[in-house]
Amino acid sequence: MADYQEAPLATRPKTLDPNEYFNLSPELRRVEEERAALRANLKRQYLTQLNNPHRKELIDDPALTRWVYARTNPYPHFRPTFKTSLIGAMFGVVPLFVLYYVFKTNRDRKEEQIKAGTLDRKYSLSS
């Protein structure tokens, strides 16, 4: 843990924070043990239903149902942040300006060559 360096845009994980990792109060340890026991109980119930050879119905996992709903309906749950705004600008706005710049400079270069008479036109419609 001594050589861990924090990332500039991320917080230190709770498991690597020495104050949270070593100095746990008995109350906090009890709460975490209760959460772990609850998770283990839910996992055991799910695996029991999954491995039941006489099962006729589908297994309803509420967490999976919520996840599928959130994945199929992203817009009600979308929260605009700096990161999402930056990604939207990079993939939505910047390509338009880059394409405009490329086409405009290419057209201006060709016009200058046509005016100077140095452009070698491969296909001529007048001959």
Describe the structure in your own words.
The protein is mainly α and 127 residues long. 58% of the residues lie in helices and 0% in strands. The protein has 5 helices and no strands. It has helices at 18-21, 26-50, 62-72, 82-92, 94-116. The mean pLDDT is 87.
Brief summary of the model shown:
The protein is an all-alpha fold and 127 residues long. The protein contains five helices and no strands. The protein has helices at 18-21, 26-50, 62-72, 82-92, 94-116.
What is the percent of helical residues?
Answer: 55-70%
- The DSSP helix count reads 5
Largest sheet: none
How large is the share of residues in beta strands?
under 5%
Cα-atom radius of gyration: 31 Å
Count of DSSP E strands?
Answer: 0
Structural class by SSE content: mainly alpha
One letter per element, helices H and strands E, the order comes to HHHHH
Describe how the helices and strands are arranged.
Elements: H1 18-21, H2 26-50, H3 62-72, H4 82-92, H5 94-116
Question: Descriptors for this entry?
Answer:
127 residues; mainly alpha; 5 helices; elongated
